[in-house]
Write a structure and sequence with these properties.
two-stranded antiparallel ribbon; 2 domains; Glutaredoxin; 210 residues; seven-stranded mixed β-sheet; alpha+beta; 27% helix
């Protein structure tokens, strides 16, 4: 699938667990349009091993995202009941109890498919039977969506490779800086560092100072 960067994020309405305890049947990212940026990320499966480290890492940084007008939303191909069961397992037992941001249930795998992160696909075998080739779970896809619903950043990690949550915060800072100042952010830019104007003179001035 072609990259979603620069395009509107795919629309969906699906069940999600809210605040770690409540199932919302018709959750949608549309509620954030015009109000918040969204970090929408996929993880492979409930009750696994790398996944809770990422889910808790996002929770630990949640206040920093919220200070930047960012809503964090997770998604996997499990059911909402599976999400809720895992949310009731204490952290010290491998669960994700204490996580408060929404976790979307994509049991039909359509959201993962539309975002290009499904780790397999349906196909017909030689006898004409429909089967799934690959793994029926989501790769570790991460999407930064602006307030207009446009995907501004996307990365997809293979199943065993965990994410860097601080890098997601850095990208949020970069996007906010671009929108606020009209400058572009060079390599390894962080909040508080010098950015530059997207001109030949601007690049020259930046390189001479760095």
């Amino acid at each position: 699938m072609a990259s979603l960067v620069g395009k509107k994020a795919p629309l969906f309405t699906a069940p999600a667990v809210i605040n770690g305890e409540e199932i919302e049947d018709n959750f949608s990212l549309n509620q954030y349009l015009g109000k918040k940026y969204v970090v929408f990320y996929f993880y492979p499966k409930d009750f696994t091993f790398v996944c809770p480290t990422e889910i808790h890492a996002f929770q630990e940084k949640l206040a920093q995202f919220e200070q930047r007008d960012v809503a964090v939303v997770a998604c996997s191909c499990d059911t909402e009941e599976s999400h809720l069961a895992w949310l009731n397992v204490p952290k010290e037992q491998g669960g994700i109890q204490g996580v408060t941001y929404p976790i979307v249930a994509d049991a039909a795998k359509t959201i993962a498919h539309n975002f290009g992160v499904l780790a397999g696909d349906w196909n017909y075998d030689e006898e004409g039977y429909l089967q799934f080739e690959g793994k029926p779970v989501a790769y570790r896809g991460s999407f930064l969506i602006d307030k207009e619903g446009v995907v501004r950043h996307a990365t997809i990690n293979d199943l065993p490779l965990g994410r860097n949550i601080d890098e997601m915060i850095r990208l949020v800072d970069a996007l906010r800086h671009v929108e606020s100042h009209g400058e572009v952010c060079p390599a390894n830019w962080e909040e508080g560092k010098e950015a530059m104007h997207a001109t030949r003179q601007g690049v020259a001035a930046y390189l001479s100072n760095n």
